[in-house]
Amino acid sequence: MTPRRVALCFLFRQTTAGREVLLGMKRSGFGTGRIVALGGGIEPGESAGEAAAREVHEESGVVVKVADLVELGPVRWRFPVKPVLDMDAVVFTTERFSGHPAVTDEIDPCWYPVEQVPWDGMWDDAKHWLGHVLRSQPLNVTVTLNPDNETVATADFD
Fold it and tell me: Could you tell me if residue 18 is left (phi over 0), alpha (psi between -120 and 50 degrees) or otherwise beta?
């Protein structure tokens, strides 16, 4: 089975209080009740960057131009006991966008200080790779989940 292709986009802004990242409480679909990155599936004929920009707009109302995205690299999730959940993501960041995040049916977006990311509300795997994103460092990681499909068995960086 081929993993689902997805694009994730992390928006950053600088405030008087410091650097912040836009995340959101998932309101519907896979991951409901967790704090997640904005993003989703790459549609046929769409580049990963186009998908990231589209998903940010659909999930928050914020407009991002593909040309303003910085690609950090892939994160691959493997669910050995439920391979239908396997995903291959391309991760992007940007500090250039227009508009203000608004609640949608799928996401309740919120700015978080980079030093105070809500780890406890996120998927277990985030603590293994999200630090790279917060530091704008390239990444290339495969996360393998335990049989509970929630906790991490391994996180292998290439």
Answer: left
